[in-house]
Amino acid sequence: MKKISLILFCLFVSTCSFAQQPYKPGYERLKAFEGIYEYINNTTLSIAASPKDTLLHAIINKSSYPLKPVADNIFVNVSNDKIRFLRNLSNEVTGYVAEKDTFKLLDRNVRFPKEMWYPRLSGNSAYKIPDNLKDGLKTGGIVHSGLDSVLLAGMMQKIIDGTYPNVHSVLIIKDNKLVFEEYFYEYTRDSLQEMRSATKSLVSALTGIAIDKGFIKSKNETVLSYFPEYTLNNMSDAKKQITIENLLSNQSGLDCDISNPNSEGNETKMDYSDDWVKFTLDLPMIDTPGGEGMYCSGNPITLGRIIEKATHMPLEQFAVKNLFAPLGITNFRWNFKPDKTNAENYCQAYLTPREMAKFGLLYLNSGNWNGNPIVSSDWVKQSFEKHSVVQGVNYGYLWWLKYLNADGVRYEGKAAQGNGGQKIYVWEEQNMVTVITGGNYNSKSPSDELISKFILPAFNKK
After folding, report:
1. How far apart are CA 144 and CA 393, in angstroms?
2. Most exposed: 15, 207, 256, 431, by fewest CB within 10 Å?
3. Which has the higher per-residue pLDDT, 109 or 61?
């Protein structure tokens, strides 16, 4: 009896252990799901199988999101939403269901380059002085720059071996010269990179330019004075007092906080609304203008629209004339249309990492580019001053005032940053700009760790 009980117990344990095994289809099976599919708002997305991590990835506008398998034909995304793939009688994948929506497979004959899965196919990490492209960026080597070549080599190796995944580029400008420039995966110096919320710092610069040129009278102008055509919900005396400066410092007082899932200004709700500016200004007030700092994407979106109204120009056109062209920025994309047609692009700007570095260098040099003032030094100074605290971090005018610790030494930086690991850091004391781009969307980015472990320690006092 004891022997039979023992056998049954072993079978029970074995069955439970088997049941707890994670579902893990092989790479060849995952390839059956590859293709181009319908997506929301009459757009498309790609589904690709990765030979590196043996996962499916949904690729939307070059942003890659892993899909974790949980059962046959069923996956979950990073938000734990269930994705169920459909098959026909011939067992071929025909589409997928997300929540209650069904999307068709449009083209299964898609090939994905091997480079998109591996940081460097060659494994080569040898340092090379950046090329001088005569694009307005001076170049030089890391010798005598103060940077540590051994640390940088270690950083390269850890990016290449996958210790730090999904890093697209690392650039360093030191003493006004681009001295380090490396790209990974399928990204090159000509690849446009999503800036995500780093775009907000561009809007800050354009606001300052619009004020400097007299299009906007003052940062103290009230926001609602620019929108007489709106009949707004939740109108109050406090809402009438919101100023342009309150938008810049994320202190509008509106119920709009990305860190609060119960906020009325939930970003997802805004994304699928017909008019993002009206959606933002319709929100109830939960604080007085100038009060608590709350991270709200509706604030810079509203600023962008104010610039358009004040200048009678599309935001992108104003940017080209007054910011991009003076910096020699020609390779970019920016569709500022704040409504649901932009739900998957977020009204963000796309720049190459070199162009992002130019923007950081402009601010390092107090708004001057090769001796020409583009943004007033006073506006740069105000933008880099503390006006609020957002998510526990000091905040300027759509710039984060962040510090990083490097082996116990604190370094003060000013950052334009966005989801996925997009970082433009200005390090004034080190006379340095660092740019890192990446694809760690909706997950922890290694960008800050790369800077604090491999770049900043070179400047620690020995």
Report:
1. 33
2. 15
3. 109
Helix/strand/coil for 239: helix
Name the one residue in this structure whose structure tokens are 């340095």: 432
Q: Which of 80, 97, 115 is the last residue of a domain?
A: 115
Least confident of 75-79, 154-158, 351-355: 75-79
Segment 3-32, tens digit of pLDDT: 444 433 343 434 444 445 678 999 999 999
Please check whether residue 135 lies inside any domain of the structure. yes
CA–CA gap between residue 299 and residue 193 (Å, rounded): 23
CA distances (Å), origin 410, targets 318, 387, 406: 38, 21, 6
Checking 385-394 for CB contacts under 8 A at 24+ apart, the result is 387/245, 387/248, 387/249, 387/251, 388/249, 388/250, 388/251, 388/292, 388/293, 389/293, 390/250, 390/293, 390/294, 390/295, 391/259, 391/293, 391/295
Rounded to whole angstroms, the Cα distance separating 197 from 186 reads 23
Residues in the chain, total: 462
294: domain CATH number? 3.40.710.10
Q: Are residues 202 and 289 both part of a single domain?
A: yes
- The model's confidence at residue 244, banded by pLDDT at 50, 70 and 90, is very high
Query: What does the pLDDT read at residue 21?
Result: 64
The answer to whether residue 389 is domain-embedded is: no
Both tokens assigned to 404: 């990083």
Which residue type occupies 133? L
What's the confidence (pLDDT) of residue 266?
85
Give the closest residue to 188 by CA, choosing from 360, 362, 437.
437
| Percentage above 70 pLDDT, the chain | 95
266 to 18, 244, 298: CA distances (angstroms): 41, 21, 10
Answer yes or no: is 318 within a domain.
yes
Helix (H, G, I), strand (E, B) or coil at 336: coil
Query: Quick one: average pLDDT of 151-169?
Result: 97
Task: Give the closest residue to 202 by CA, choosing from 97, 91, 288, 320.
Answer: 320
Are 281 and 275 spatial neighbours (Cβ–Cβ below 8 Å)? no
14 falls within a domain: no
- For residue 59, give its domain range: 19-115
Are residues 182 and 212 part of one domain?
A: no
Beta-bridged to residue 105, according to DSSP, are 37
Q: What is this structure's pTM? A: 0.92
Tell me how far the alpha carbon of residue 81 is from its chain's centroid. Answer: 21
Rg for the chain, CA atoms, rounded: 25
Domain end call among 74, 94, 115? 115
